[in-house]
Design goal:
By secondary structure, the protein is an alpha+beta fold. The protein is 41% helix and 14% strand. It has nine helices and nine strands. A three-stranded antiparallel β-sheet has the order 3-2-9. A two-stranded antiparallel ribbon has the order 1-4. Helix 3 packs antiparallel against helix 4. The longest helix has 22 residues. The chain is elongated, with a radius of gyration of 20 Å. The two termini are 23 Å apart.
C-alpha cells in the first residue's frame, strides 16, 4: 500500500475543513469478508462515502464537498510554511456509527434511492460489527446481542430497496432475510442461477439458513 497526499475538503454547511486520505496503490492482501457483504482490506482502505462534520454536525456526502487543497505525503520545513495551519489541524473524515447512520436517514441525507441504500447497508454493517470482531467463539456460544427495533426496521426497509434481478443484491437480500430469522424465504431466494464465483458464499448462507443460524459469519 502506498498512501497519496491527503485531500482537504470543506463541509458544505459550515465550510469547516476535513482531511481525506488517498492511495497511490493498494491490494486486497489480508482482506476479510463476511456474509453481509462487508470487506475490510487493511492494504486497501477506502474513505467513507458520507461523514459527519466535526464542527457543525452536518451529514454530507464527500462527493458534494469542495476540495480546497492537498497536504503532501511528506512535509519539509519549507512545505510546512506554505500549508495553512487550519489544514494541518483538520481531522480525517470517519465512518459513521450505526446510530449516526439512522440519524442521517432521519435528517434526509439520502436524496436518491441509491443513497438511501448506501445508508441502510452502512447501518446494517455497523450494527453487525460487534459480532464481527468478537470472534467465532463468541458467536458459537450464542452470546448474541439482540437487534434493536430500529435496526430491525432498517433491515425491513432494506429488503424493499434491494433488487433481486441483480446477483449481488439478491444475495444480500437473502442474507438480510436470514439475519431476520426468515430462513425459508432466504433459502427460496438462493434458488437462483448465480454466476459461478458466488458459489461458495451461496452454499454458506444456505447452510446457515438451514441450521436456523441468524448471525453474520466470516467467509473463510
Amino acid at each position: 500500500m502506498i498512501p497519496g497526499p491527503d485531500k482537504i475538503i470543506e463541509c458544505p454547511n459550515c465550510k469547516g475543513f476535513a482531511r481525506v486520505f488517498t492511495l497511490v496503490s493498494g491490494n486486497t492482501f489480508g482482506a476479510r469478508r463476511w456474509t453481509d457483504g462487508k470487506m475490510i482490506a487493511p492494504m486497501l482502505p477506502r474513505p467513507p462515502a458520507i461523514t459527519k462534520c466535526r464542527d457543525c454536525g452536518h451529514y454530507f456526502w464527500l462527493s458534494d464537498a469542495k476540495k480546497v487543497g492537498e497536504l503532501p505525503s511528506l512535509w519539509g520545513v519549507e512545505e510546512k510554511k506554505k500549508i495553512p495551519p487550519e489544514w494541518r489541524t483538520a481531522e480525517h473524515v470517519r465512518e459513521l456509527s450505526e446510530a449516526e447512520y439512522f440519524e442521517a436517514i432521519k435528517k434526509g441525507a439520502a436524496e436518491r434511492e441509491e443513497q438511501e441504500l448506501h445508508l441502510r447497508i452502512g447501518a446494517w454493517w455497523a450494527g453487525n460489527d460487534l459480532l464481527r470482531y468478537q470472534g467465532q467463539s463468541f458467536v458459537d456460544k450464542s452470546r448474541i446481542v439482540a437487534r434493536s427495533p430500529e435496526a430491525t426496521m432498517n433491515l425491513e426497509s432494506l429488503l424493499e430497496l434491494l433488487n433481486i434481478g441483480d446477483s449481488d443484491q439478491r444475495l444480500m437480500k437473502a442474507e438480510v432475510l436470514r439475519e431476520l430469522g426468515r430462513f425459508e424465504e432466504a433459502i427460496r431466494l438462493l434458488e437462483f442461477d448465480f454466476p459461478s464465483e458466488y458459489g461458495s458464499v451461496v452454499v454458506l448462507i444456505r447452510n446457515l439458513a438451514q441450521k436456523k443460524d441468524p448471525i453474520v459469519r466470516e467467509i473463510l
